[in-house]
Design goal:
The chain is mostly helical. 63% of the residues lie in helices and 4% in strands. It has helices spanning 3-24, 28-33, 50-75, 89-109, 119-122, 129-159, 164-172, 190-214, 223-253, 279-312, 318-325, 330-355, 358-381, 425-448, and strands at residues 175-178, 186-189, 257-259, 267-269, 386-388, 416-418. α1 (3-24) packs antiparallel against α14 and α6 (129-159) crosses α7. The model is unreliable at 36-42, 177-187, 256-272, 389-395 and 401-411 (pLDDT under 50). It is found in: Cell membrane.
Length: 464
C-alpha cells in the first residue's frame, strides 16, 4: 500500500471539500432551501465570473482528454500495437472523469439557486443552451464511466471470471458483428460503440458550450458557429496539454522498482517508463503528444486570428476589438494568450517533438494550460465587458434580456461604457476547492482502480 499517496489523497479531498464547505457558509440555510442566490458573481457588473470560466476550463479539458484518447482507441481497435496510448488508455479515461468533477461542481455552484439545480432536468427547456449543457455533461459522464468499465472488462475477460457482474463487464468489451448490406461491412466491438458514443457526446457538448458564448446578443451572428468551432478545437488543445502534463509527472513520481539479479542483493532502481510503458515506447508516446499538441496549438493560433478579424472588421463589434487589441484587455490577450498560450507552446512542442523529451513536453503543457485558461477567460469576459452604445443597437435575438443604452456622438457622450471584471472571494473559494478535490479524486482512482496494464481487478469486480 502506498501510504504517501493515500495520505496525499485524503489531504486533497479533505482540504478541497473543506474549502467548498466553507463556501457554503456564506448562507447555507438559504442555499439548502433555495430561497437566495448562492452566486455572488450575479451581483457583479459582469455576471459570468470565475465559476463560469472554471467549469468551461475543466469541462473542456475533461472532454478533450477523453476524445483524444478515445479516437486513438477507436481507430486502432484491431491493431492495439499501433496505439501509442494503449497501455495508459484506462488511466487517461480516469483522468478525463476526474477533471470533469470540478466542472460539474462549478456548474451547480454557479446556478442562480443551486439547491434547485435539479430543475435543469425536471423542467427542461429545449430552447436553453445552458439547460442542454446540464444534459450533455450528464451524457458525457455516463459515456466516460461506461468506457472505463469496458476497458476494465477487457481485463476481466482475460481472467475468465464467471460472476454475473464479471460477465456483464466482459460483455462490454465483447465482439458483436453487424453486417451492413452492400459494399460497407464493418465488425464492431460493443466497447467500440461505447467509445463512439462518448466521442460524439463530448464533441456535441464542446460545440454547445461554444454556442452559449457565440450567440450572446452582444456578438454578431457570425460568432455562433465560430465559437463552437473554437471550443471543439480547444478541447484537443487543452486535452493534449493535460495528458502531456500528467503523463511525465506520473512517470517521475513513480516509486522505484526492485530488481533482483542472480546471486546479488536486491538493487533499487528507478522505474524507466510511464506506468508500465517501456522507455522506447515512452519516447514514441511523448513524440506523438508533442506532434499533436503542436498541431492543436497552430490550429488555435489560426482561430484566434480569425476571431480578431471577425471582431475588427464589423462595426458592431469593433469596440470589443479595440478592448482586446489595444485597450485594457490587450495585455492579457498579447501576453497571456498569444505569447504564453500560442508562441511559447509552439516552440516548446517543436523541441519536445525533435528530442522526444518528456521534460520539454511537460514545460509545453504548462504554457498551453495557462493559455487555455486565458483564452476562455477572454472569451467569457469580452462579450460582457461593454454596455452598448450608439443610435442603432446591435442585432438582438428574440427574447434577449440584455439591455442597451442608446447613445450617440451627437449628444457628446461616449458610445459605450466598459464594465469592470472582478473576482469575488466566493469565486476563489469554489475554484480552489474544486481544483484540489480533483487531485484527490484522481489519486484515489490510481489507488483503487486497475489503471495500469499489469493491474487486474481483484475486489468487487472493478477494484484492483
Amino acid at each position: 500500500m502506498n501510504i504517501k499517496l493515500w495520505a496525499w489523497t485524503i489531504v486533497f479531498i479533505l482540504i478541497g471539500g473543506g474549502i467548498m464547505f466553507y463556501g457554503m457558509s456564506y448562507n447555507p440555510l438559504g442555499w439548502f432551501q433555495g430561497f437566495v442566490s448562492f452566486t455572488e458573481p450575479n451581483d457583479e457588473p459582469i455576471p459570468w465570473g470565475l465559476l463560469v470560466i472554471g467549469y468551461i476550463f475543466f469541462g473542456v479539458i475533461g472532454t478533450g482528454v477523453s476524445t483524444y484518447n478515445s479516437l486513438y482507441e477507436l481507430f486502432n481497435k484491431n491493431h492495439k500495437e499501433k496505439n501509442p496510448f494503449d497501455k495508459i488508455k484506462l488511466r487517461n479515461e480516469w483522468l478525463a472523469f476526474a477533471v470533469l468533477i470540478p466542472g460539474w461542481i462549478m456548474v451547480f455552484a454557479s446556478t442562480y439557486k443551486p439547491a434547485e439545480a435539479l430543475y435543469i432536468y425536471l423542467s427542461f427547456r429545449d430552447t436553453s443552451r445552458i439547460a442542454w449543457n446540464g444534459v450533455l455533461y450528464a451524457l458525457v459522464g455516463i459515456g466516460i464511466i461506461a468506457e472505463i468499465l469496458a476497458l476494465i472488462g477487457e481485463k476481466i475477460k482475460e481472467e475468465g471470471k464467471r460472476g454475473y457482474l464479471d460477465r456483464f463487464l466482459a460483455w462490454l468489451s465483447s465482439k458483436t458483428s453487424f453486417e451492413i448490406p452492400g459494399l460497407l461491412k464493418i465488425v464492431v466491438d460493443i466497447d467500440a460503440l461505447i467509445v463512439g458514443y462518448a466521442i460524439l457526446a463530448e464533441l456535441i457538448l464542446d460545440a454547445n458550450l461554444g454556442s452559449v458564448f457565440g450567440y450572446l446578443s452582444t456578438w454578431v451572428y457570425e460568432f455562433g458557429p465560430f465559437m463552437s468551432i473554437l471550443l471543439v478545437v480547444a478541447s484537443f488543445y487543452a486535452g493534449i496539454a493535460m495528458i502531456s502534463f500528467i503523463t511525465p509527472l506520473y512517470s517521475w513520481l513513480r516509486k522505484p522498482s526492485v530488481v533482483s539479479p542472480p546471486s546479488a542483493q536486491p538493487i533499487a532502481t528507478h522505474s524507466l517508463g510511464s506506468g508500465n510503458v517501456e522507455p522506447q515506447e515512452d519516447n514514441i508516446m511523448f513524440k506523438i503528444l508533442a506532434r499533436d499538441g503542436l498541431l492543436a496549438t497552430i490550429s488555435i493560433g489560426f482561430l484566434v486570428l480569425w476571431w480578431v478579424w471577425l471582431t475588427a472588421t464589423n462595426q458592431e463589434t469593433f469596440p470589443w476589438a479595440q478592448l482586446l487589441l489595444t485597450g485594457s484587455w490587450s495585455l492579457y490577450f498579447w501576453i497571456g494568450l498569444v505569447l504564453i498560450g500560442i508562441i511559447i507552446p509552439i516552440a516548446l512542442y517543436s523541441v519536445a517533438y525533435k528530442k522526444e523529451s518528456k521534460g520539454w513536453l511537460f514545460a509545453s503543457s504548462i504554457f498551453a494550460l495557462l493559455g487555455w485558461f486565458m483564452l476562455i477567460t477572454i472569451a467569457d469576459v469580452i462579450p460582457q465587458a461593454i454596455s452598448w452604445y450608439y443610435s442603432v443597437s446591435p442585432i438582438t435575438p428574440p427574447g434577449s434580456t440584455w439591455a442597451y443604452e442608446l447613445r450617440s456622438n451627437f449628444n457628446g457622450v461616449s458610445q459605450f461604457t466598459q464594465l469592470p471584471f472582478a473576482i469575488s472571494q466566493y469565486d476563489l473559494v469554489w475554484f480552489a476547492g474544486s481544483a484540489l478535490f480533483l487531485l484527490g479524486v484522481y489519486t484515489l482512482g490510481v489507488l483503487l482502480l486497475p489503471l495500469e496494464e499489469e493491474e487486474k481487478p481483484k475486489h468487487v469486480w472493478i477494484f484492483k
